[in-house]
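Record type: ASSEMBLY
Status: queued
Input:
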Amino acid sequence: MSVEKMQFQAETKRLLDLVVNSIYTNKEIFLRELISNASDALDKLRIESLTNKELADDLAPEIFIVPDENSKTITISDNGIGMTRDEVINNIGTIAKSGTKDFLDKIRESSNAAAQELIGQFGVGFYSAFIVADKVELLTRKAGENSAVKWTSDGAGEYEIDDCDKDSRGTTVVLHLKPEFCGDDEYNFTDVYQIERLIKKYSDFVRYPIKMNFEVKDKPEDEPQIEIRTVNSMKPLWTRPKSELTREDYDEFFKHQLHEWEAPLEVFHIKAEGTVEYTALLCIPKHAAPDLYYSNYEAGLQLYSRHVFIMDKCKDFLPDYLRFAKGLVDSPDLPLNISREILQQSTEVKVIGKALEKNIIKQLGKMLKDDRDKYEAFWLEFGKSIKFGVYNSMFDTKLKDSLKDLLIFPTSKEKFSTLAEYVARMPDFQKKIYVAAGKDAAAIQQLPQMELLRERGLEVIYLTDPVDEFVIDVLHEYAEKHFQSITREDFELDDAESQKIKEEVAEIAKSHEDLLKDVKEAVGNNVHEVKLTSRLKSGAVCLVTAENSPSLSMEKTFAAMNNPMFKAVQILELNPNHAVFKKLEALHAQDKNSADFKNFCTTLYSLALLIEGVMPDNPADLANKITDLLTK
Ligand code: ADP
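Status: finished
Output:
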């Protein structure tokens, strides 16, 4: 095949644009990215050659780096798996990552500083070459094949792909450096010693030798000789004693290992020598991957046996709700040639997984106690995952007990509160934990039911995430205190004053049974019952749901999940001490069959729906009725 000119996929083009007009502050990371790719390619070759004996040869795996002052280039070569022409087109001309488009849209909408932060979460891998180079050539020959291809691009709209000669398998990437990266300034990527330092800094633990040419002289007057040296120590980080390692070491390791651009929020280095021996190096990233909650998100840990890479994305170690945790497990008790199927059955994997889960829960509890700011940052990114954990622990009391103290919620008094903290603040007479669901804190604060609670100084837990109400349902109680939604029919305040008002309202209700029956008839079957209430102060109406029915927001969630049959059982409550009630009474007394009375009733119901953030079935009709009322 001859030379082809091809366009980058649209998203790739946009991403490249970001890279070329570099909003990246760290110019050095291209080297780490390209070395990571080279080391992955060597891993892939090793794994392939386990089953395909033709690939096994005596070429020792290595990565070679040549900075060259004369040609103003830096070349990174590996003798790994290499790529076919199609693979080059698919891997290098296209970004396969799901969530790329969402990510780019977010970038476009954000300020420069926010964009920096965002791009840090994404990482652009190979394209980072264009931070420092104005032209990149990639020559590659797939292991087991005779032909090679050359890919060339200046990082603008298109790339060129052509056949080429290459002696042996693997990939060579040549970066033609921009002038500012080959002078004597801060960055000179043609300088052997600067590159040596960068390799030691970012890629010391890479498992394959990273080699470079050094000029050496025995005596100053001698002609320099070229000596090839391995620059990295190749010692897997996780085999080193914890006491020797700094947080920075871990940070660099994870950036390399996971192709992340920013340091993780938290790292765990776990060594165990019980029934199963293993070392795990795990981390919680600072930010959730854009596609973390998508079904095609590939979670899982990397698996090593005796420091040799076996496979990526092993889902069998951690339960799904901990899918945000990343890292690796290295165990000599797992055989080198283990398959995914055997892994699923392996008791060793189960033992390790249980221990890791326990450890992560314990460490999160510790973070919550010792570093609240960090925990809240964790929560904003991954709180949903912990909630899913609680939700899924419906039949696992032990797990539920270990997770419930990790939950934090915004409340009417605190930015975030644990359930234990909330209970500790409850006044003696309060017997239940008050919760309210809504779109956000502002919407909940505006609920008419909140007014009285606010006045009494009572605290309410805000459930602003659709999964929250389900979590509360599963928990049922905390510290022997039941949860009580303030928008449920059976909600009542426990203090003496509230009890007194309740009795008064019950008296009024007795003498207004007819009125309530006629209101119910006017609003129709959407409402199960119409009642008088003691829970409102300045509000005229509110909508609550029956004790065991889904709430209105749960109904919305169910509808969004295509389960429209789960309906909230609605109860319309009227405040007998409100002027609107007096008006209602008067209209009823005048003529309970009049259109005025009926319109008044349906308008009240529509307003109650609006307060709950639910659009009435016929908004135009409501608008007409309100206009009528305004002009009367
Ligand atoms: P990532 O490494 O995060 O997948 P990159 O943009 O760095 O993203 O690389 C895209 C893909 O190109 C890789 O997944 C790999 O399949 C292929 N690739 C990149 N560099 C090499 C290499 N040196 N050898 C073989 N394949 C490579």
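Annotation: The first strand starts at residue 4 and ends at 7.
Annotation: Residues 237-373 form a domain with the Ribosomal Protein S5; domain 2 fold (CATH 3.30.230.80).
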